[in-house]
């Protein structure tokens, strides 16, 4: 039987492996060393704290049950206890995970509620075909936000992700796409000129709103120009037909997503990626899980429900752990370490623990990136106050090459040299 690309994508994952190539990170990247990448993995309900956080601090900590699949990475990871965005508890605040800011409060901050991944993507710009890639099996976390406060939705079908990253357009499709880009550019030119005329009679508040609109127009114009340039460049090939399997599981589908992102990092298609484990996703094909993800968070401390919740959270970390092993097995050109050494990995949530709807003490783990990792850290200050999570984000921004010493609600920089 000959497997089509769609049939293969439905069954890949656990059997999918990547070639260990010393391949193309782009001429600029090769001349100045490997580029830094960023991978963030998030869920909406946090983690059961007794199973996520290790019981001891320091670099010689004992791995916790939820993080057991990352035991091999202990010397290259940092787990942060007692850090959050200082928000009252309840659903709806978890969307601030990567910004520290709720959309309703965003006007008071320079970056508004722009998420960390999109700030990285803006820094990368047109150096790569895709400034960022977001993927999930369903939408719902609302984790990624643009500079204009617009949610950036993830790609929710592995087939669509494959087509987006690796499927080259036919000459006819390129012609259609080129005409569309030219038409959109013309529309933006027209709208921009109309606003220039309207600004002459606008009030101060209207001018502020118009300035935001013009910023959006300029970003769209740059995006269209970038897409026109990349339209003529061939994408890297990614032949997965030999990995066909008839089994379709949530593990296989997420492994397929992570493998495609790893290869996109390796071939410099993108340097920023986000993967979400959404609230509505069904995990019942995991051993021991019989209820919904959300249902398991309302456990009332019942042992059987807690066990199912921890199984789900451990599964999420296991999928990430498998991806990190893949990144660590890919050597950078020139013998400059592995892909993982040049990938900042962030795992966490904007909610501390779904069982209490707490938005305090967020479960946060950082790995890779060439940091001098610190094991398990108590991030509280001398007064016992939790550290703003944005302090960590400042450290990640600086490692990525973004020169700044503040990010939204930060009060300093977390020491992760």
Describe the 3D structure.
This protein is of the alpha/beta class. It contains eleven helices and nine strands. The strands form two sheets. It has a seven-stranded mixed β-sheet with strand order 4-5-1-6-7-2-8, sandwiched between helices. A two-stranded parallel sheet has the order 3-9.
| β-strand number | 9
Helix content: 25-40%
> CATH topology of the largest domain, anyone?
Alkaline Phosphatase, subunit A
Strand fraction band?
5-15%
Per CATH, the architecture of the largest domain is 3-Layer(aba) Sandwich
Distance between the termini: 53 Å
Counted up, domains total 2
Give the topology string: H per helix, E per strand.
HHEHEEHEHHHHEHHEEEEH
Treating each run of at least 4 consecutive H or I residues as one helix, how many helices? 11
Q: Compute the average pLDDT.
A: 82
Structural class category: alpha/beta
CATH class of the largest domain: Alpha Beta
Which sheet architecture does the biggest sheet show?
A: 7 strands, mixed
Low-confidence stretches: 1-30
**What global shape is seen?**
globular
How do the strands line up in the largest sheet? 4-5-1-6-7-2-8
Keywords:
417 residues, 11 helices, Alkaline Phosphatase, subunit A, seven-stranded mixed β-sheet, two-stranded parallel sheet, alpha/beta
Question: Can you give me a brief rundown of this structure?
Answer:
This protein is an alpha/beta fold. Helices cover 36% and strands 10% of the residues.
């Amino acid at each position: 039987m000959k497997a089509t690309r769609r049939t293969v994508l439905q069954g890949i994952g656990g059997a999918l492996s990547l070639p260990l190539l010393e391949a193309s990170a782009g001429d600029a990247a090769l001349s100045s060393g490997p580029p830094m990448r960023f991978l963030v993995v998030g869920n909406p309900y946090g983690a059961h704290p007794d199973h996520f956080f290790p019981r001891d601090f320091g670099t010689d900590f004992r791995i916790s049950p939820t993080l057991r699949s990352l035991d091999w990475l202990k010397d290259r990871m940092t787990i942060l206890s007692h850090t959050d965005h200082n928000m009252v508890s309840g659903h709806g605040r978890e969307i601030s995970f990567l910004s520290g800011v709720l959309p309703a409060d965003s006007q008071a901050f320079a970056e508004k509620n722009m998420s960390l991944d999109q700030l990285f993507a803006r820094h990368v710009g047109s150096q790569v075909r895709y400034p960022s890639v977001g993927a999930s099996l369903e939408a719902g976390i609302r984790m990624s936000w643009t500079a204009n406060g617009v949610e950036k939705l993830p790609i929710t079908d592995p087939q669509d992700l494959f087509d987006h990253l690796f499927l080259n357009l036919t000459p006819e499709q390129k012609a259609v796409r080129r005409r569309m880009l030219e038409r959109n550019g013309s529309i933006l030119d027209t709208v921009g000129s109309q606003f220039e005329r309207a600004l002459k009679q606008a009030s101060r508040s209207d001018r502020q709103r118009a300035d935001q609109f013009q910023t959006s127009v300029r970003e769209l114009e740059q995006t269209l120009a970038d897409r026109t340039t990349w339209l003529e460049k061939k994408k890297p090939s990614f032949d997965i037909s030999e990995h066909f399997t008839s089994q379709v599981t949530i593990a296989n589908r997420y492994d397929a997503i992570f493998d495609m992102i790893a290869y996109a990092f390796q071939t410099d298609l993108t340097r920023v990626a986000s993967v979400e484990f959404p609230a509505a996703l069904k995990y019942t094909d995991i051993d021991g899980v019989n209820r919904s993800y959300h249902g398991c968070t309302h456990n009332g401390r019942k042992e059987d429900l807690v066990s199912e919740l921890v199984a789900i959270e451990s599964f999420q970390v296991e999928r990430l752990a498998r991806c990190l092993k893949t990144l660590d097995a890919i050597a950078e050109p020139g013998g400059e370490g592995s892909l993982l050494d040049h990938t900042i990995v962030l795992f966490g949530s904007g909610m501390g623990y779904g069982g209490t709807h707490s938005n305090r003490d967020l479960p946060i783990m950082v790995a890779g990136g060439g940091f001098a990792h610190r094991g398990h850290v108590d991030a509280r200050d001398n007064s016992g106050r939790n550290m703003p999570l944005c302090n960590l984000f400042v450290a990640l921004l600086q490692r990525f090459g973004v020169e700044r010493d503040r990010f939204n609600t930060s009060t300093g920089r977390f020491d992760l040299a």
